[in-house]
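In response to the reviewer comment on reproducibility (Comment 2.3), we provide here a single inverse folding case reported in full, input and output, so that an independent group could reproduce the run without further information from us. The structure tokens appear first.
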């Protein structure tokens, strides 16, 4: 197994999570460099995590440190340009969410030059871990049966001062509110478990926070396999929780946590007369490793070792981004949106605000 040279770009709060989880990869990664435009913050970060090289320029980092993998922990509006720069330099990219602020921006990856087979992946750490793999395998199978009804709730609380950072709560810098910046992890897992979505009907509102984006969205989703789900993304919920519930023909699968989960956060409830088969199917799966960044990092290294496509690759990341765009498009037009509908020329292809429509709708409906 190869040890990969890793660099972190951006040294804010999420970068510390990356550094701590890299230390849990049993020597599979060597954190060789970090980059930040803020010299004081960069120096503090490199000292805290024992990183030998610090750079204030991504170009210099790529040229001098020559990392195998670059973790992008910068504000959202920087992700796609930095990703393209890294790919052109031959470094694999692991980008924090959202991978881009629009489908148009994300699709620039298709034409970006890549050296040495460099690949793109997005941080969707909830997909990883034994329980999510088990649930994905069993949902739709003979023991659990077809998925029928689901809900996916990201009910978080962010006070007004959370938005003191100038890029938060803006379309131009963050790309949206909780739909893009918070709930995306949870509904990415829902899509991972249930497969392709087919149609979305949604609403979005600015109920209480002084932002230009929504602070709440709610969607009704029909999946290709016939399942129907509700998806709620909120920053207004004092009792914070992240929840997924999927009711199949013979079992209910539930996940309740906040920012990360272990196997103990999953509950499987059998339908009457299916107790034995459901329990045996669940217990037969390996259920040791929880979710988290380190689980995704290790899966990434395994894929690179085997010369396979990276997990949470560009194609699957785009599907999740398209789902977010569909929520906004439906919420601000009042129309149902089907998968594949948002293409070049569509007002929501170039931005989640829909050429300013979202701003106008939210302004007209915002509550004092």
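Designed residues, in position order:
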């Amino acid at each position: 197994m190869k040890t990969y040279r890793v660099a972190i770009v951006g040294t804010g709060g999420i970068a510390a999570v990356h550094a701590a989880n890299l230390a849990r990869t049993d020597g599979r990664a060597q954190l060789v460099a970090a980059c930040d435009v803020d010299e004081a913050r960069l120096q503090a970060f490199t000292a805290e995590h024992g990183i030998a090289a610090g750079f204030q320029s991504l170009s210099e980092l790529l040229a001098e440190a020559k990392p195998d993998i670059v973790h992008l922990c910068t504000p959202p509006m920087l992700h796609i340009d930095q990703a393209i720069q890294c790919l052109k330099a031959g470094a694999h990219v692991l980008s924090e969410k959202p991978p881009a602020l629009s489908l148009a921006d994300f699709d620039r990856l298709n034409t970006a030059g890549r050296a040495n087979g460099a690949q793109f992946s997005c941080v969707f750490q909830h997909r990883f871990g034994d329980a999510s793999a088990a649930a994905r395998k069993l949902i739709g199978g003979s023991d659990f049966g077809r998925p029928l009804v689901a809900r996916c709730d990201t009910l978080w609380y962010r006070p007004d001062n959370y938005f003191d950072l100038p890029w938060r709560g803006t379309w131009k810098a963050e790309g949206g509110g909780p739909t893009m910046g918070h709930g995306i992890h949870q509904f990415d897992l829902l899509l991972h478990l249930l497969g392709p979505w087919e149609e979305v009907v949604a609403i979005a509102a600015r109920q209480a926070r002084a932002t230009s984006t929504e602070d709440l969205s709610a969607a009704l989703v029909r999946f290709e396999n016939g399942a129907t789900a509700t998806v709620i993304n909120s920053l207004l919920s004092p009792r914070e929780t992240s929840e997924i519930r999927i009711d199949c023909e013979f079992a209910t699968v539930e996940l309740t946590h906040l920012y990360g989960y272990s196997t103990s956060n999953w509950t499987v409830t059998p339908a009457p007369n299916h107790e034995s088969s459901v329990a045996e199917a669940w217990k037969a799966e390996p259920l040791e490793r929880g979710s988290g960044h380190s689980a995704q990092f290790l899966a990434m290294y395994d894929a690179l070792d085997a010369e396979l496509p990276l997990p949470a690759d560009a194609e699957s990341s785009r599907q999740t981004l398209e789902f977010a765009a569909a929520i906004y498009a439906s919420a601000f037009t009042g129309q149902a949106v089907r998968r594949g509908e948002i293409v070049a020329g569509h007002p929501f292809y170039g931005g989640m605000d829909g050429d300013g429509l979202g701003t106008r709708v939210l302004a007209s409906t915002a509550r004092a």
